[in-house]
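User: Sequence in, structure out. Go.
Assistant: Echoing your sequence, followed by the structure tokens.
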Amino acid sequence: MKRFEEIKKLILDLEGDFEKFYEKDNQAAGTRVRGGMQELKTLAQVIRTEVQNKKNEKVEKK
């Protein structure tokens, strides 16, 4: 659940940069959005791996 909270925080933190980029055409904000989205992708992959490992552990115990 900790990683899920990290994802939610990251998205909320990026909200202002999304607005600046899409509504005000601020290119620096676009760079921050791209970096944040890369971090989001990495976190999502980590969560995906953790879920799969936990799922596999339960299957092995049966």
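User: And one key feature?
Assistant: Helices lie at 2-24, 27-61.
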